Amino acid sequence: MGQGTELQGRRILVVEDDFVVAQALCGLIEEAGATAVGPIGWADEALAYIQSNKDAFNGVVLDVNLHGQKSYPIADWLTENSVDFVFTTGYGAEALDPAYAGCPRCEKPFDPRVLFRLLGSSAL
Asked: Which CATH superfamily is domain 5-90+103-120 in?
């Protein structure tokens, strides 16, 4: 099986404020056989989108810091609604609020294989 096969057929929402990173992520997701949804770069827009389009995706790549706002309210909603997500961050684990320390996380620059494995680990 090739890289990212654990994402085959999934719909992955990309919530990332860096346009170049977001475009690269979308390309990697598509190459892995999944459908990239988004990207969305602002916390309030992402929260509004997930609340009104919860059937449009079944996994999320979630940047911790979106234009200076933490994405924790988005992570809370995803957790409450049993949606798989992986935090991405340019900082180490210590930068995460302790309440989120147990969440799957990939540090930037990330290895797509690790990201896909984390996203696919609890796939339906």
From this structure: Response regulator (3.40.50.2300)
